[in-house]
Amino acid sequence: MLLRKASLQISSFVSKNCTIMSVETAKKIAAYKAVDTYVKNRHVIGIGSGSTVVYAVERLAERVQNENLNIICIPTSFQAKQLIVANKSRFQVENEMHLSDLENHPEIDVCIDGADEVDCHLNLIKGGGGCLLQEKIIASCSKQFIVIADYRKNSSYLGEQYKNGIPIEVIPMAFVPIKNRIEKRFGGKLELRMAIAKAGPVVTDNGNFILDWINFKHNLKWEDINREIKMIPGVVETGLFIKMATKAYFGMQDGSVKEQDPTLNNSN
Ligand SMILES: O=C(CO)[C@H](O)[C@H](O)COP(=O)(O)O
C-alpha cells in the first residue's frame, strides 16, 4: 500500500500568489533532499519506516542506478525491508543495493527516517507506525541521523500538533501495571493500541504491545522522563528520540525544504 502511495501522482495547486504543495509532495521533496545531501558511494544506510521513507528509498535506488553507487541498506522494520527489496528490483540494482543487518554492519554511516513530530530542539516523537524499537536501535548505531517529514510535523514543542500520543513498546504481560504507573507518576492517559484489520491489539515486529501516552503535559523534561519510563520493568522502548537527530528536513507548502539543526535551536 505504501509503495502504491509513492507512485501516486504528485499534486500541487496554485492559489492566488503561491503554489501550495500537497502533503505527499512535501514528503517527497524532504526525502529527496536528505538522500541527495547525505548518501555517498559505499555508505551503510539505515532505512527508516513509514510513508515518507517510501520516497527516500525510491530516490536511493534511482541514484544507485544513475550514478553507479554501491550501498548497503539496514532496514528498521519489516516494511522497510520490503521497500528495499521492491526498489532493488524496480530499479534493477540487485547487485549494487545490498540488504544487510546489524550483525554484518554494526556501524551505520547515515540513517534516514520519518517522525511523527519534531520540536524546536530536534527532539522527536516516533513510533506512529509501531516501529520505534528497531528505529531507535538503528539510529543509535548511526553516525548521522537525518529526519525527513512534511510541514505538519514541524512543531515548537512535543504534543503541539501530534495528538496520537507518545508510543511506548511494552512486554504484553506488563501493559496494565506500566499504564497505571505512568498515569499515576506523570498524568495523562495511556491507551493500548488496537489493530484495525485484526481483533485485539497491535503486535509489533518484535512481538510486543504499544501503549500510546496521550494528553501528557507539555514542555516536560523529556530526557529525564524518557530515562524514568525506560526504568519501569516491562518497558522495551519509548518513542521519545531525545538528542539523537543530526538534522531535520521539512517539505514545506510553498515547495521549499526547511532545514533544522539542533544547534540552531530554531522555533517556529
Ligand atoms: O516512527 C515511525 C514509524 O514507527 C515513522 O517514522 C513515523 O510514524 C512517521 O511516519 P510517516 O512518514 O508515515 O508520517
Features:
globular, Ribose5P_isomerase_type_A, disordered N terminus, binds ribulose-5-phosphate, Rossmann fold, alpha/beta, 4-stranded antiparallel sheet, NagB/RpiA_transferase-like, 7-stranded mixed sheet, 268 residues, EC 5.3.1.6
Describe the structure.
This is ribose-5-phosphate isomerase. Keywords: Isomerase. InterPro entries: NagB/RpiA_transferase-like, Ribose5P_isomerase_type_A. One of its GO terms (cellular component) is cytoplasm. The chain has helices at residues 2-6, 23-38, 51-67, 78-90, 132-140, 175-186, 222-230, and strands at 12-14, 19-21, 44-47, 71-75, 97-99, 108-113, 117-118, 124-125, 142-150, 166-170, 189-192, 209-214, 235-238, 240-241, 247-251, 257-260. It is α/β, with parallel strands linked by helices and 268 residues long. It has 2 domains: 2-155 and 243-260, Rossmann fold (3-Layer(aba) Sandwich), CATH 3.40.50; 166-233, Alpha-Beta Plaits (2-Layer Sandwich), CATH 3.30.70. The strands form 4 sheets. It has a 7-stranded mixed β-sheet, with helices on both faces. A 4-stranded antiparallel β-sheet has the order 11-12-10-13. α2 crosses α3 and α3 runs parallel beside α4. The longest helix has 17 residues, at 51-67. It is globular and about 55 Å long. Mean pLDDT is 93; it is low at 1-11. Ribulose-5-phosphate binds next to α3 and α5. The site of ribulose-5-phosphate has 17 residues, from α3 and α5.
